[in-house]
Design a protein that fits this description.
This protein is of the alpha/beta class. The relative contact order is 0.12. Helix 8 crosses helix 14. The protein starts with 29 loop residues before the first strand and ends in a 9-residue tail after the last helix.
Length: 358
């Protein structure tokens, strides 16, 4: 967990009278390639806030979220594949950008900026792409930073004394979409996100279900969120005691749903960062991940983890351990197995989510 406007004026050009038409403003000379993943995109928002005017290039599926963010420049949607690459090159050439910053680590994104005629290209020296960058930042320079700080450093060359907290504000269309889905669920809403792209970061659905069942015994409603590929998990967690929203929201509606919750309990995942960005307190469960690098930014977030394990954090997507564990009989995902529902419920109680004893 990490704690975290300016105005502009147009000067009168020399030799111009008040009746002379103003020159057409130049578009931003800076373009930023935003990260491909939801959580990383949100951790890049502080860098956009600090830098001000800049165009951004981002995968198309993430563009709806940028309508909720204070992005001052144009948004250049990007599709994957050869056709997407060609169209991305055309968009960059049309912008005639003098500078570009890559917040993605891949050689493909560097090749896109080079082919798009971006003159000065800054990014991390990863994926053997150093020759495609005019300013390659050694990965060691970024390794110990929180990712939000690393993005700020890549964009501005400095680490802020206090990182701005990422902020997203769901628009009325997103709020209405969520209202149509959720109906008149009794308030307050308590959200649970039991999924994650990385298996090593997933707590057992049966334990999430126990937490959901205990929380549902109090006044209010428990909502279980998830993507289309996580429907089996959300159904198991929701059971007969929670509202299952798994696979039923797009990103804007998900943002609105998370914003409507008093608290969100989540694995280390993109929606964890989304909940934090819309202003909802969180309780997050950590195993392989390193919250000092990728934890939610802000002050209202509780972490549950067992850092006493010598393998934590391994930052691997798949747990490589087998056999007998350090504390348990099974070493596989021991970091997540050690988390007990009572730990999660005690953290939730700090935010007013007090379960009723059975």
């Amino acid at each position: 967990m990490r704690d975290g406007g300016r105005g502009t004026g147009d000067a009168q050009p020399p030799g111009k009278s008040r009746g002379t038409a103003s020159p057409i403003p130049r578009p931003p000379s800076l373009v930023i390639r935003l990260p491909n993943h939801l959580g990383d995109l949100i951790m890049a928002l502080p860098a956009l806030e600090i830098v001000g005017d800049a165009d951004v290039q981002v995968l198309r599926y993430l563009t709806p979220l940028l309508r909720m963010a204070p992005v001052r420049g144009r948004v250049l949607p990007l599709d994957r594949g050869a056709r997407g690459f060609r169209e991305g090159v055309r968009a960059l050439r049309a912008g005639r950008y003098e500078r570009g910053v890559l917040l993605t680590p891949s050689i493909g994104s560097a090749a896109l900026f080079a082919a798009g005629g971006v003159r000065a290209r800054r990014g991390s020296a990863t994926d053997r792409r150093g020759l495609l960058l005019s300013d390659a930042v050694p990965r060691e320079r970024l390794a110990s930073m929180h990712r939000a700080d690393a993005y700020c450093f890549l964009v501005t060359g400095n680490v802020p004394e206090r990182t701005p907290v990422p902020r997203l504000v769901p628009d009325e269309a997103a709020v209405e979409s969520w209202r149509r889905l959720a109906g008149d669920l009794p308030r307050p809403l308590l959200g649970i996100f039991p999924g994650s792209n990385a298996p090593s970061r997933r707590w057992a659905p049966a334990r999430f279900a126990e937490v959901a069942r205990m929380l549902a015994r109090r006044a209010g409603s428990v909502v279980v969120f998830g993507g289309p590929q996580e429907r089996a998990i959300t159904a198991e967690v929701a059971g007969d005691w929670a509202f299952d929203a798994g696979g039923r929201t797009d990103l804007p509606a998900l943002a609105a749903g998370l914003a409507g919750c008093r608290l969100v309990i989540s694995n280390d995942s993109g929606p964890l960062h989304l909940a934090a960005a819309v202003g909802t307190p969180t309780v997050s469960l950590w195993g392989a991940g390193n919250p000092a690098v990728t934890g939610p930014v802000g002050a209202r977030h509780e972490l549950v983890r067992h850092a006493e394990l010598p393998c934590v954090p391994c930052v691997k997507n798949e747990c490589p351990r087998s056999g007998t564990g350090f504390f348990l009989s099974d070493a596989h995902q021991e970091c997540m197995q050690l988390i007990h529902p009572s730990e999660v419920l005690s953290r939730a109680a700090r935010h007013g989510a007090e379960p009723v004893a059975p």
